[in-house]
Structures are given as structure tokens and as C-alpha cells.
Amino acid sequence: MPHLLVAGKLHPSGLKLLQGSGHSFDYVEAITEASYQEALPRAEAIVIRTQPLGAASIAKAPGLQIVSRHGVGYDAVDVAALNARGIPLCIVGDVNSAGVAEHAMMLILAASHRLIAADRATRSGNWAWRNGLQTHEVAGKTLLIVGFGRIGRHLAGMARAFGMKVAAYDPYVTDWPDLATRVTDLTEGLRAADAVSLHLPRADRVILGASELAAMKPGAVVVNTARGGLIDEAALARALAGHLGAAGIEVFDAEPPAQDHPLFGLENAILTPHNAALTVECAERMALASVQNVLDFFAGRLDPSLIVNKVS
Length: 312
Ligand SMILES: O=C(O)[C@H](O)COP(=O)(O)O
What we know:
Blueprint: E1 4-7, H1 12-19, E2 25-28, H2 33-39, E3 45-48, H3 55-59, E4 66-69, H4 79-84, E5 89-90, H5 97-112, H6 115-123, E6 142-146, H7 150-161, E7 165-169, E8 181-182, H8 186-192, E9 195-198, H9 210-215, E10 221-224, H10 233-241, E11 246-249, E12 269-271, H11 280-298
Helix pairs in contact: 1-11, 5-7
This protein binds 3-phosphoglyceric acid.
């Protein structure tokens, strides 16, 4: 039976599934470069969280046959190095959509209603804050979703239930669902939006830079639960000190962000620690799915739609 490396903390249900499978495995809860060195030479499969798996690490695992992401983003994995050896990389599919989409909706609502500022005002005895009229409803407002895959679509359904008009931008989608108006020009979509929420993989370019942020309406809300690097964080901080209303940021260019990060000093930035998909429910589903994908692979029945790289 092939040997597994579980690289990063896994929900107990995933470990239980693995224990019952008959596979031997190393469980490295807090993976570091040093622990990779120790465990990789034995690994024939890796279940991996968001920490990097680079070409040098992959080269240390001569028997590696499959990498299974506990999640859907795989920007931290060196896909070219896997491709070169014909090693498949699989993701968990739809199992984290609810957690991430709910988190995005929560950030849109919290930013619009200034939840954190309201909480702080209440605790500090600033009751007069309630008459400041600085909060906004989302009903009737336009949400632009950038990236219209599983999570973006889930969010579209929720935003519509809140009475939002939903538009989406995604040049790669061919099966456009009847959940959002299609926008073909990002800047035009941003000009018309009261809120924008990103739901695309980390790209090698910034999607919301200074000029895109400048195109947005005064008072608009920016939400990112996708990946750091998609927004120019310094430009966002400047825009939040200027015309933008608020932002909800769950992912950062460098994680964890440094204490002097430009967003930390802004009262209208709501920040969360890349935990959207780590609800108890989501963490359990991701653990079960990422382990099951490895078991399915070795049983010859892994769903090919979960493999994201090119292996022949
Ligand atoms: O960003 C992600 O892909 C999800 O949060 C899962 O990542 P994790 O495995 O580090 O929790």
C-alpha cells in the first residue's frame, strides 16, 4: 500500500478515514521545510494545505505519484515540476464553496453596515455613532463578481437573495448560468459596481491595481476571499483613505501579513486570517475529500474533473 504524507493540520475525520484505509502515513501537523526534508523521501502521495510545495521538495520524493490539495487554490504548488514527472494534482472541488461564499457575503454585509466600527463604538460608549448615517444596505446595489466559478456562483445566489443586482466578469466561462449579468469589460463593470468580490485563482498579475480601484464609485466596497496578489494592497490602502467606502480582505500577498501592513491602520478595512474555508463543516469536508481523492487515485477511480494539471 502506498505511503502518504499529510502536510499540515487535518480535521480528525480525515485522519480517521486514512487510518481505516490501511495506508501508512506521516502526519506533520505544522509542516516546515525541515519536516519536508525528513518525510518527503517516503511520500508516494501528499495531502497538502496551502504551504508551498516547490520543485526542490518535489524532487526529494522520488516515489511521488499524486498530490492532493486540501482546498481549491494551488498557486503554492509547483505545477510544472509535477507535470514534468506526470504526477497529477487534484483539488477538492465544490466542498468549500459554501464556507468561502458565506464569508464573502459576510464581508460585503459587514463592510456595508460597518459592523466592526459599530461594535467598537458600542463598546467604547460612543452611542451617538448610531446617528452618523454612515452605513448602507446592500439591497438594490450592484455586486460585481470577478471569477465566476463554483464559489462565485454560490455567492451570486446569496447576493440575489439579499436583493442585490449581480453582474460577473469571467472571460473563461463558456456555460454562463442565469445567475448574473455578464460583463465583458472589467473596468466598465467596476465603474457600475457598488461592491466587487474576487473569486479567481492567484494570477501572475494584479487584477485590482490603482487604475481599476480609481474606476470604482465613491463609497464602493472591495472584498477579496480568493488569493493575495490579486489586489495591489498599497493602492487599496490609498483608495480606502480616499474615495472607497470599505474593504473586506481575507487573503494577503504575503501571509501572515506584516504588522506594518498598510491596511492595518485603516478603520474601514475588515481583515480576516485566510480562514473562510476553515469553518468546522468545511474543514471536515476538505479533509475527507482530500484524503478520499488519494484513496480513489490508488483504486483507479479518481474523478478526472478534480485533476487540475496536464498529465497524460
Ligand atoms: O485557500 C484555500 O485553498 C483554502 O483555505 C484551503 O486552504 P488550507 O488547506 O490551507 O486550509
